Amino acid sequence: MAAAFAHRNGAGLSLCLASAGVLKTLSIAAFTLAWTHSVEKIEWQEDWRVTPAGLELMQARVKGSGAGMEPPPEARLVDGWFQWQPRRPPIPELLLGNSGAAGEWRLCGAGQCRTLSEIFGHPIGANATIMRACEP
How many separate domains does the chain show? Predict the structure, then answer.
């Protein structure tokens, strides 16, 4: 794993990724999930935190609006991004699908982003990836 993904959080939790029967564990407390919308080709980012209760969505950002990606009324335009703080309880896992139409999901931390294929060490292709909090 790259250094950006190697720091431990205080709770001892890690982020587990599973795809096509392969499991990867990243020792991170927080991360940004980034992707490009497959139809509108607009960048979207979400800041997540790994907690004992699961994955907690802290903030969402979108670089524009369009088909199925309209920012909510509480979103504010900051440096060209519509930003807002979703009010949701933590979730046990997040399922990431791949359409192949817009590039890959990217995980970012400490100023560095890596595609899921880079993290797994092989092309993910159309395989879904499950993300969840896990013990190290």
Answer: 1
